[in-house]
Write a structure and sequence with these properties.
The complex is a heterodimer of chains A (143) and B (76). Chain A has 143 residues and is of the alpha+beta class. In chain A, 31% of the residues lie in helices and 38% in strands. With 76 residues, chain B is α+β, with helices and mostly antiparallel strands. Chain B has a single domain, classed as Ubiquitin-like (UB roll) (Roll). The chains are: A alpha+beta (143), B alpha+beta (76).
């Protein structure tokens, strides 16, 4: 299991490829991946950059817990959760959630469930830089 | 008892500080702590945690606790 909060930009596909390459060959039959990327628009406005804040200690604990729960509940072979903090720019990856399992159902379900849990529980906050100034994002989109 | 209280995101900016150290009586609830630090502001749309786990407003604090107040989360 790999769970990390990253203060620097990363390439999600390199991270996923490297982690998967280290899993025992032949042990998994399904890999499901979600990558969340920063848009350059929100609520009708152009967004130039975003500052991602978290609660050190609490957020890491929450991500560990949701990954561990998913691993057990869905009987996964492995999981990975990465999340950016700090200043992010449009097209920068923000979050990666990946699940490996024997068959597709567990991997698909776990990937979706971990992502929804992360969105609703994990203590991250976004502050957007617009042309006209800054604003805090008040709530996540429904889906 | 002595506790620390932290504020995050837009709430930290509204409060004008990121934390407080408070001396309070034993058995005080999260709601009472919020009333004290915010000068009676409504707790509507806020969340709270105790020792890095989500708490309910009627949960009580003990000596040495790390309490935090923050707006709804927006990660992912």
């Amino acid at each position: 299991m790999k769970v990390e909060i990253r203060p620097e930009a990363y390439d999600p596909w390199v991270e996923i490829g490297a982690y998967q390459a280290a899993l025992p060959a032949g042990s998994y039959g399904a890999s499901a991946v979600f990558v969340g990327t920063m848009r350059d628009f929100n609520e009708g406005d152009d967004v130039e950059s975003m500052l991602l804040e978290h609660y050190p200690g609490m957020t890491e604990q929450q991500l560990e817990e949701l990954a561990q729960n998913s691993l057990k509940y869905h009987g996964l072979i492995d999981v990975m959760v990465l999340h950016r903090v700090g200043e992010v720019r449009p097209n920068d990856p923000i979050v990666v959630v990946a699940a490996w399992s024997a068959h597709r159902k567990a991997a698909f379900d776990a990937c979706r469930e971990m992502m929804e849990n992360l969105k609703s529980v994990a203590t991250f906050w976004k502050k957007e830089q617009l042309k006209e100034g800054v604003r805090w994002v008040e709530k996540n989109t429904a889906g | 008892m002595r506790i620390s209280v932290m504020y995050f995101a837009s709430l930290r900016e509204q409060m004008g500080r990121d934390s407080d150290q408070l001396d309070l009586e034993e058995g005080v609830t999260m709601a009472e702590i919020w009333q004290k630090v915010s000068d009676q502001c409504p707790q509507e749309n806020l969340l709270c945690s105790r020792n890095k786990e989500y708490a309910q407003w009627d949960d009580t604090a003990v000596d040495g606790d790390e309490i935090a107040f923050f707006p709804p989360v927006t990660g992912g």
